[in-house]
Backbone:
């Protein structure tokens, strides 16, 4: 099983989601990349070294409102700081055997830039990168924003639209893989409700990031549309279904893709490099998620039930 991040902020079931996914990731039964909500939580909790008393993500009313559900569940509890540190060890992307995984957008040039400047970029979010990625205008800011939120382009003539939280926006996320999109509306990646507010002007900016036809298959979550897509590299995009989201929907997992293939175990999780194969069964009405682990070993329990957040209708079976 592979999680695509965004475990927090949406919906009331903040702790139940973490309580399910974290043991799976720590034991090596699942892999995960970081989402923009985890990055924002890290920056919100980290003091700004250049501004005493300030934070890398300012504690404005708007930012606090976006984190409200997560902060209500964790901020005044004893495990808040420790969970933030755990978030920092989620990789920004994964390159596996035959598969690549990123939260929003795979941009090889930006990844090479980060790897060259920060040698352990995917083995823990170090302080220097965290600070640089929190300062608008820095190349690290652009790199992390693109990987975790997607490619954005400014709307023409200073036009704007309002997002789902009522915030005015003058930039839109775009279908960075879509070479056939010719207008801002065709390239727009976001909720259908906002589509009528996006101009039909011809695109006057290069929005595409070419994903090579000989590259490995890519799994990415498309923020704003809550959908997991597979990219084959020849311009085709295969819809793999709606993301299974924990915090937002009360389902068994947050931003989840389950792939019928093998991958190396998460480095540093169980200390091993196992090969796993994960499958998902057809959803059936249930209040529980049965997670089945059939590998012998002390770090992953066998045939155990995991309580799901209230209202779940997912039954997921993971075997390796």
Residues:
């Amino acid at each position: 099983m592979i999680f695509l991040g965004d475990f927090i902020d949406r919906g009331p079931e903040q702790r139940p989601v973490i309580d399910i996914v974290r043991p799976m990731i720590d034991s090596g039964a699942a892999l995960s990349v970081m989402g923009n909500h985890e990055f924002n939580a890290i920056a919100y909790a980290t003091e700004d070294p250049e501004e005493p008393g300030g934070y890398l993500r300012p504690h404005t009313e708007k930012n606090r409102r976006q984190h409200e559900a997560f902060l209500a569940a964790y901020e005044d509890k004893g495990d808040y700081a420790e969970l933030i540190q755990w978030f920092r060890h989620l990789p920004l992307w994964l390159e596996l055997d035959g598969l690549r995984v990123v939260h929003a957008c795979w941009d090889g040039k930006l990844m090479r830039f980060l790897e060259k400047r920060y040698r352990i970029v995917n083995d823990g979010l170090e302080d220097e990168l965290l600070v640089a990625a929190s300062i608008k205008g820095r190349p690290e800011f652009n790199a992390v924003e693109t990987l975790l939120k997607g490619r954005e382009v400014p709307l023409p003539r200073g036009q704007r639209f309002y997002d789902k939280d009522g915030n005015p926006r003058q930039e839109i996320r775009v279908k960075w893989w879509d070479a056939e999109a010719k207008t801002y509306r065709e390239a727009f990646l976001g909720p259908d409700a906002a589509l009528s507010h996006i101009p039909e002007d011809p695109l006057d900016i290069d929005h595409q990031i070419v994903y090579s036809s000989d590259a490995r298959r890519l799994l990415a979550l498309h923020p704003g549309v809550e959908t997991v897509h597979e990219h084959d590299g020849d311009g085709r995009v295969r819809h793999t279904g709606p993301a299974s989201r924990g915090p937002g929907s009360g389902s068994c997992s947050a931003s989840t893709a389950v792939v019928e293939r093998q991958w190396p175990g998460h480095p540093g999780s169980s200390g091993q490099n196992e090969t796993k194969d994960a499958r998902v069964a057809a959803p059936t009405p249930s209040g529980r998620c049965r997670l089945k682990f059939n590998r012998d070993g002390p770090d992953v329990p066998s045939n155990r039930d995991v309580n799901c957040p209230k209202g779940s209708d997912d039954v997921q079976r993971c075997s390796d």
Observations:
- Residues 244-254, 258-320 have pLDDT under 50 and may be disordered.
- Residues 2-151+211-278 form a domain with the Purple Acid Phosphatase; chain A, domain 2 fold (CATH 3.60.21).
